[in-house]
Amino acid sequence: MKFIDTIKNIWKIDELKNRILLTLTLLLVYRFGAQVVLPGIDASQLGGFAANFDAGLGGILNAFTGGAFSNASVFALGIMPYISASIVVQLMGIAIPYLQKLQKEGESGRRKINQITRWLTIGICLLQAPGYLAALGTLGVPESAFILGKTPVFYISSVLILVTGCVFAMWLGEKITDKGIGNGISLLIMVGIIATMPLSFVQEWVARVTESNGGIIMILIELVIWFVIILLSVLLVMAVRQIPVSYARRTASGAYEKNVFGSRQYIPLKLNASGVMPIIFAQAIMFVPGLIGSASFLENTSAGQWLQAEFGGNIFGFWYNLVFGLLIIIFTYFYTAITVPTNKMADDLKRSGGFIAGIRPGSETAEYLDKIMSQITLPGSVFLALIAIFPAIAFNVIGIQQGWALFYGGTSLLIMVGVAIDTMQQVNSYLLNRHYDGLMKSGKNRKAVA
pTM value? Predict the structure, then answer.
C-alpha cells in the first residue's frame, strides 16, 4: 500500500524521523502537565468545577487548553496568553513605528519582536492567573478542596506556578517549531482540542445508542456530515486565486530583451487570508453583550435580562450566532486589510521586473491586487462565518450533543484542519527533497483555485 510505503520512507530519513519523535515527546510532556493539579487543591473535589465546562463558552475555552482549565492544572492558562500577546503585538505593529522598523529588519528584528511577545505574555499571565484563582470558588470548587485554605501563600505560589506553566508551554511550542515538525504553538492547541474529542464522542454515542435516540444509523449520518464539513474546511484553507505575473527575460549581460517575455508565474491570493483570527476576535467581542446585560444599571431590566439570556453563554442561540457571523465577516475584511500588504507586493513585483498583463506597475498594480482581495474576501468571509456557526446548526437542527457539536465547525475544526495541512506539507517537502513520493497522491501540494 502507498500509505505504508510512505511511512517507511519517512523512517528512512533520519532528520525527519528525529523531528517527528521529538515533536511527539514534547506533546506528551504538555499533555502530562495538563493533568497535574495545582498544589493545595484536592483533585478529587473538582467534579463540580469540571461540569461547568462541558459546553458553552467554557467548553470552548477548556477545549483550547485540552481540559487543563477544568482540571485546575499547572497548565490551566494553556498557551492562550501567548496567542493574545502575539495578536496584540501584531496589531500594535500597524501603529507603532518602532515595531514597524523591527518588522523590516529581517531575522534580528523578528527575534526582538519575539522577545517583546514573551514579556507581554508574562504580563498577561500575571493578570489572568489571579482572576482564574479567584473564580475557582464561584465556578464550583468547594472550600474543602483548598487543602491549606485560600491563604496568601496559596495565591502567590499558584500565580507563580500558572505563569511558569504558560511560559513552559510557550517554550515547548518554540522548541517544536525549531527542532520538531510543524508550527509548535498551533500543534499544542490542536492536541488540546483533540484530547477532548473522545469523551465528547462517547457522550454522543451514549445519547444516541444507549438511550435509543436515533441509534447507530444516526451516528453514521453525523459522521458523514462531519467529514463533509472537514472537506469544506480544507477547501477554505487551501483555496487561492492565482494572479498571473510575467517577467521580462534577462540576457547574459543582465539587460532586458525588449518585447520578449520569460516564464509566467502566479501571485497566490488566499480565499481566507486571515485564517481563524476573525473567529477569535469575534468570540472575544461576544463576551461584551452578556457583561453589559449583567451590569448594575441593566441587570433588572427586560433589555438586560434579554442580553444575559441570549449572549451570556448561550452559544447555540439564534441571536448569538447571527451577531457572531456578522462580526466574523467584518473582522475578516479588517484582518485581511492589515495583514495582506498589497502595496509591498506591488513594489516587490516592480523591483523584480514583473508585471500583471494590462496593469501598470506600481500604484495601479496595488489597487488591482486590493480590488481582487476585496472580491475574494466576501465569499471567503461568508464561508468562514457559515463554518463558524455550523455547531449551532448541528445542535439545534440535528440534535447533536453540545460537546460533540463544537467539533462541527468553528475555531476548533479550522485549527485542526489548518495544522494538519501545514504538518503534512512540511513532511511532504522532506520526502520530495529526498526524491521519495510525497504524502499527496501526485507528489505535489495541490491548491484549490477559487
Answer: 0.78
